[in-house]
Amino acid sequence: MDRIPPQKSSSFSPATFREERLGRNLSLGAIKISEHGANEQIKEEGEESVDNVAGDGGEDAAAGEESAVIEEAVEPDLAALSAEVDAFLAGRDGGGDAPPTSISEVTLDKFASAVEQEMAQSEGDDDKWSPAENGDAPPLLAAIKRLAALAATLTAGAGGEGHKFTIGVHRVTGVLHRAMTFVEDEFHAILDDPRLAAATAQSAAGDTGSATGKSIRRPPSFGHAAAAPDSSTAAAADSSSPPFPPETVDRLRAMADAMAAGGYTTECTQVFAVARRNALDASLASLGYEKASIDEVVKMPWESLESEVATWIKAFRHTINVGLSGEHDLCARVFPNSGTGRAIFADLAKCAMIHMLNFTEAVAMTKRAAEKLFKVLDMYEAIRDAAPIIDAFISACSESESDDSQPVNPLSDIKSELASVRARLGESAAAIFCDLESSIRADAGKQPVPGGAVHPLTRYLMNYLKYACEYKNTLEQVFREHHRTDDDDGNGSNPFAAQLMEVMELLHGNLEAKSRLYKDPSLCNIFLMNNGRYMLQKIRGSPEINSVVGEAWSRKRSTDLRQYHKNYQRETWSRVLNLLRDDGVITVKGSVQKPVLKERFKQFNAAMDEIQRTQGAWVVSDEQLQSELRVSIAAVVVPAYRSFLGRFAQSFSAGRQTEKYIKLSAEDLESIIDELFDGNAVSMPRRRN
């Protein structure tokens, strides 16, 4: 007898004899065909005998029987068997109007074998799920759907005919189960790595390409434990993987249709949901985001938490703008025209959002501190900006609803969670900003800043406020929603601006109190000038804070600065100028009183030495203010001194007497003034020759 060509090694390769094929039922053991369906077997064998006589004319019965066995081993004609199955199914669907078409036990066996053969031959074929050129369903998909419909008819309730076909029912349902395992493995493999769908059979070297090989990697979800996340999915689905191309989505949709036709929708959606959930997790991991519990976040030091918040913001924006948008599109295309895709996407979105929102809840629970404000606002903005995208998802799901089976949109819960977390962050941000008042009031140090320089509190607060005003629109929104000042009448007032002005006024009052720590009134005014100028420069250098503070406040502070300047000149230089005046004491009746003149020069020299020694150590860090002070002093003092020298220098005899009393020239005085306020105390220079 001729040998049948060897088939590809697979769990779906046809056996050599029908008895072996019939014996491959799930845990049923071998069942002989002679034990059931005797009439069909006799009829078949009789027909085969007639054919043998007509074709050979002289062969004995044994040869005819062997020929019949060989013919049965030949690959079944799937098209012919499908037509017979369709006729049987159509007869059952016609009710009582048409006589039902019968089907034999052997036909059921042959059709199941043909479907098995189709699956075996399709292994390694990348186009097995692609539609035919004429647009018809791929042959494998059509065969599996037909097998599912046949199994459903045979195993229907009391009206079913399964009791007539004991072996056939087991055979059909067994092959259907293995077909679903086969489809599920293929489905999972593509979801695991979409590039597999575009790979050729040669590129799959190292993989058996069989369903059996894939099953070893991941057990099927039915008939075993429920599908669970596996490391292979997370490892393969990173953010750098290409999106699913259209042809891959078509194959996924065809597989999902096949599993739905076989009654395995739950298993299909389970595999899909787990795979995509793992893909989202892997995408977040590739961005550096690692899940942490609320307790871990609350106990984390701010230096570490600040970095985690920055990573969370990046991961959250990616999930909303890229991850969920892609998953929504994929669910809608793989599961079109049903609520399945919407339910899967809603589950994916919830799983992705819940833990990320738990992180924000934990951040809002941490102890408030001024340095946390800006990261809290960043998180607030990220969640605020996500709301329109979630609304778009909700709207898309609502528009696609064809019935009232889901009266409450499952994504509404996500919207509520976002709103709740956003409110928590907003309340935290408003409270942190308002805590600045307490910080200012608590800063009541009794040690003055050396040299009258800008106070650290001024630097910190003004830079803090400048940076805060870069979030001006967000802070205004936060304060309108979560904070009301005492004078807010609700008629268009800006509670954030009111709070900021309160902070500014508190700072101004705090600085005035600190200025009184200086015993020297001149240094007191230098301190106020330094700090006032610093505040004004920060405000005018930032359009954001300037728009909140307003021009009126800036003009008032400019007026204060001019007054501090006048006060300083009066306290320091008025006494010097008085020494350079002839008030009727130096010259009496046209005669210079030398003793008085000598005393005046001695007092002037002592005053300038004191000013140079003390005010040279004072600090005016703003170069413009420093220049303004020096110019204004020189413009008054130098001309007065030059005039005084012109009138009275000749009163002293040349030589030692002149050097003793006139120690400074006008140029020396200019040099002394030019060296003031640079933080370096020096002694008065010698008189220039």
What does this structure look like?
The protein is an all-alpha fold. It has helices spanning 18-22, 38-56, 61-73, 78-93, 105-122, 139-154, 166-192, 195-198, 211-217, 231-236, 246-261, 265-286, 294-299, 302-334, 339-365, 373-400, 412-442, 456-468, 472-482, 495-515, 521-540, 543-549, 551-579, 594-615, 623-648, 656-661, 666-674; strands spanning 587-588, 591-592. Among the domains are: 443-566, no CATH class; 580-674, Up-down Bundle (Monooxygenase). It has a two-stranded antiparallel sheet with strand order 1-2. A hairpin with a 2-residue loop joins strand 1 (587-588) and strand 2 (591-592). Helix 4 (78-93) crosses helix 5, helix 4 (78-93) packs across helix 6 (139-154) and helix 17 (412-442) runs parallel beside helix 20 (495-515). The model is unreliable at 1-73 and 197-241 (pLDDT under 50). This is Exocyst subunit Exo70 family protein. Residues 311-675 form the Exocyst complex subunit Exo70 C-terminal domain. Residues 34-44 have a biased composition (Basic and acidic residues). Residues 57-68 have a biased composition (Acidic residues).
